[in-house]
Amino acid sequence: MSKKDYYKRHLCPVCGKYEFESHGSFDLCEECGWQDDPMQESEETDEGGANPEGLRFARILYKAGKSKLNLKEKYRWLIENGYDEKNEIDREYVYENE
Predict the structure, then answer these.
(1) Side-chain-facing half-sphere of 16: CA atoms under 13 Å
(2) Span 10-36, mean pLDDT?
(3) What local confidence, expressed as pLDDT, does residue 6 receive?
(4) With contact defined as beta carbons under 8 Å apart, do 41 and 54 qualify?
(5) Are 88 and 47 in contact (CB under 8 A)?
(6) Which of 2, 8, 59, 68 has the smallest number of CB atoms closer than 10 Å to its CB?
């Protein structure tokens, strides 16, 4: 991506309904709650950035109407609906205190 393109407005990579001012703005999407993070946008499974669930899971959650849940609820829903086939989600965290 060129420097000129980096500073262009772009649509949210999760819902496609909110326009960020520029790549890497770290603004929050008003529609789905995704925080604009250029590293996570370039690597769909990266959970180490501004969004703990990563882009791949965020898209799944948004399409299912679950993007507003808290993190444990999101992870639980993904596990219980078969989306964590690679066991990427920390089940100990999700099911602690049960």
Answers:
(1) 2
(2) 93
(3) 58
(4) no
(5) yes
(6) 2
End-to-end CA distance of the chain: 46
Per-residue pLDDT tens digits for 25-80: 899 999 999 999 988 988 887 777 899 999 999 999 999 999 999 999 999 999 99
Answer whether 13's CB lies under 8 Å from 51's CB. Answer: no
What is the value of pTM for the model shown?
0.84
In angstroms, the Cα distances linking 4 to 7, 25, 37 are 6, 14, 18
Q: 84-94 as b/e, with b when 16 or more CB fall inside 10 Å? A: eeeebbeeeeb
- The number of residues in the chain equals 98
Whether 3 has a pLDDT exceeding 90, the answer reads no
Q: What average pLDDT score do residues 89-97 get?
A: 89
